[in-house]
Amino acid sequence: MKFLSFKIYSFLVLSSTCYVPLRCNVQAVIRVPLNKSIPAVIFFGDSNVDTGDNNGLKTIVEANFLPYGQDFMGGKPTGRFNNGKAPPDLLVEELGIKELLSAYLDPNLQVEDLITGVNFASGRAGYDPLTSEILKVVSLSGQLEMFKEYIVKLKEIVGEDRKNEILANSLFILVIGSNDITNTYFSSITLQLNLNSCELDVCHQKEH
Questions:
Q1: Are 178 and 46 contacting, i.e. CB atoms less than 8 angstroms apart?
Q2: What is the pTM (predicted TM-score) of this model?
Q3: 170 close to 42: Cβ distance less than 8 angstroms
Q4: DSSP helix, strand, coil percent of the chain (3-state; round to 5)
Q5: Which Pfam families match (predicted)?
Q6: Out of 92, 155, 182, 194, which residue is the most buried by the measure of CB atoms under 10 Å away?
Q7: What is the share, in percent, of the chain residues with pLDDT greater than 90?
């Protein structure tokens, strides 16, 4: 399976106009090569692109309460870590695939959603398994395991040949890494500094 079977010179431009109090109108612009189409979009990553996978997890990292979603359709929070649509939604909408990219763990996920792509991203996830383990979210390796499960489901729905065609021509996007720096790397340094400080204090006490 190849992640991209043709050269795709598409790009995403987010242009925004913001007004006080920090309300922004965001528009996506996508260009795809002529005579090419993208049947599905698959996202992996963290809260920058999570569209609701954390809703069903036992974690404190959630976005299913206001003010999240206040500018979303119906003004209701959906698990997206922003006030409206998330980048994956803007992308699939601009590509003409569908209006929203559903979270894979959404209990209301439809068959049509699986055919046109889903989102495996989990808020506060990272490359380092420890990053996700600390806050009990879906790690990147866990997201890949869900993707394997998704492939099996997709085959059951459309058959082997169509499954291969969809996966070969789909757009796969990974947005992850910042939590490894802010939550794991710097936290580890701070912890080590605190431990070193405590060891020095113990040494000084023994000297006296």
A1: yes
A2: 0.76
A3: yes
A4: 40, 15, 45
A5: Lipase_GDSL
A6: 92
A7: 59
